[in-house]
């Protein structure tokens, strides 16, 4: 993974702002647990009133985190993609900070942790920069 650039950091902050709203987190958590739901069902399960729910779903829809699907007069919402599901799960797990969240975080690491990144000379030799061990010293012990 390359170093974080200022423009990328700004984009990440804007993305995080989408999750920095309790009602949106509740909506996403319910969709994760139950899959696609009609707006009325979301209202019942979240306890969020219809006007506020519509506003928050609109924000999540414009950010392409949730997608609507119309069946006759009913609109169902679901999380947009498997990647978005994994990201939302990981974020909620990370913020909860309990041990039950470790499998989710490991899944994210497994999925995204193998991307190419800049490797320092010390890491290329087999150790982290802050904990490198010279081979000459270990052979004397």
TrEMBL record:
InterPro entries: ArsR-like_HTH, HTH_ArsR_DNA-bd_dom, Metal_resp_trans_reg, WH-like_DNA-bd_sf, WH_DNA-bd_sf. Residues 115-141 are annotated as: Disordered. Keywords: DNA-binding, Transcription, Transcription regulation. Coiled coil: none annotated. Residues 4-99 form the HTH arsR-type domain. PROSITE patterns: HTH_ARSR_2. Residues 115-125 have a biased composition (Basic and acidic residues). NCBIfam families: HTH_metalloreg (NF033788). PANTHER family: ARSENICAL RESISTANCE OPERON REPRESSOR ARSR-RELATED (PTHR43132). This is Winged helix-turn-helix transcriptional regulator. It comes from Acetobacter suratthaniensis.
């Amino acid at each position: 993974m390359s170093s974080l650039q200022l423009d990328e950091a700004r984009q990440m902050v804007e993305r995080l702002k989408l999750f920095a709203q309790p009602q949106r987190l509740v909506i996403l958590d319910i969709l994760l647990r139950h899959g696609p739901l009609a707006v009325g069902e979301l209202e019942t399960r979240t306890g969020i009133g219809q006007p506020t729910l519509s506003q928050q779903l609109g924000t999540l829809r414009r950010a392409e985190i949730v997608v609507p699907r119309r069946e006759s007069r009913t609109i169902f919402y679901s999380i947009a993609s498997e990647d978005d599901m994994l990201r939302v799960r990981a974020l909620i797990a990370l913020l909860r900070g309990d041990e039950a969240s470790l499998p989710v975080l490991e899944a994210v690491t497994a999925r995204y942790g193998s991307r190419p990144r800049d490797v320092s000379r010390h890491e290329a030799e087999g150790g982290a920069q802050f904990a490198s061990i010279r081979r000459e010293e270990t052979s004397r012990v």
